[in-house]
Specification:
With about 280 residues, the protein is an alpha/beta fold. The chain has one domain: Rossmann fold. The chain is built from nine helices and ten strands. A seven-stranded mixed β-sheet has the order 5-4-3-6-7-10-9, with helices on both faces. Strands 1-2-8 form a three-stranded antiparallel β-sheet, with no helix packed on it. α7 packs across α8. It is globular, with a radius of gyration of 19 Å. The structure holds zinc ion.
Length: about 280
């Protein structure tokens, strides 16, 4: 019996060829589909637990780096809505910058953790524009979907739900794990981000497809990385020693990014705007 055809959950390509028993690579949009997954329920914490202080320190540092990338476009933004806010590190960093910070997550223990912190409004459940508190709604808003859509059967459906909630001038930040970064290239299916929660890994071309399909204007896009030590001098020296030419090129073009953001590039991001 021939196995059933696989449809791409992003671009709808009807017959995505299998690479092997673990994955299928969409020839149209460049999405890598995980064939090893099983349905998950995140409500009681599956996926992510309340982090210990040392883990949280790193997550906060990661969130600060994200806002540093976003900084050029944040003038005038008053509300921050983090969809799939996890342990709340982006909300915490955002709370000193924006008047209103609202997080949505289906993971109840994490919502409790954020509420206890008292810096942001945490809504338990899936994103619902009607659940944004009145004082935060209707203000110039930055929405975020950071490490969220790779968990979904239909990533575009949530993106479209968010774009419907956006007003002209509002921004959307999307970040996802990539199969084109150094870690997946080196470790393959042993990479920690190849796991049953991640139904797919993106590529820069899959992200470009998503940007076009969203109907929003692309302000920025690129790759980044955050793992312990990825921005250290030691990592920088290793990158220089292993790929000196690419290092020089990265040095000329990296802008606000670190060498690791460009040369390791395990995550991809988009900064989108509603016109
Ligand atoms: Zn596709």
């Amino acid at each position: 019996m021939t196995p059933a055809a696989i449809e791409c959950p992003l671009c709808g390509c009807p017959d995505v060829p299998r690479r092997d028993v673990h994955s299928a690579l969409c020839p149209t949009c460049g999405l890598l589909l995980n064939l090893d997954t099983t349905p998950l329920d995140y409500a009681e914490g599956g996926g992510q637990a309340v982090p210990d202080p040392s883990k949280m320190r790193w997550r906060l540092e990661n969130a600060r780096r994200r806002f540093a990338l976003l900084d050029p476009w944040l003038g005038g933004i008053e509300s921050f809505v983090d969809i799939g806010c996890g342990s709340g590190e982006m909300l915490e960093v955002a709370s000193s910058r924006f008047a209103h910070c609202v997080g949505f997550d289906t993971n109840r223990p994490l919502i409790g953790h954020i509420r206890a912190g008292g810096r942001a409004t945490a809504v338990s459940g899936r994103f619902d524009a009607a659940a944004i508190p009145a004082e935060a709604a209707g203000k110039p808003t930055l929405f975020a979907l950071s490490h969220v859509i790779e968990h979904l059967d239909r990533p575009l459906a949530l993106v479209r739900q968010v774009t419907d909630a956006m007003a002209p001038g509002d921004l959307l930040y999307i970040e996802v794990p990539l199969h084109t970064g150094a870690s997946f290239r080196q470790l393959g299916y042993r990479w920690s981000l190849w796991n049953r929660e991640h139904l797919m890994l993106f590529s820069p071309s899959a992200l470009a497809y998503l940007a076009t399909a969203s109907g929003l204007q692309t302000l920025g896009s690129g790759t980044r990385i955050f793992a312990r030590g990825s921005h250290s001098t030691k990592t920088r020296l290793k990158l220089l020693a292993s790929r000196p030419l690419a290092f020089l090129q990265a040095g000329l073009n990296k802008g606000r990014h670190s060498f690791a953001d460009v040369m390791i590039g395990d995550y991809g991001y988009l900064v989108l705007k509603k016109s």
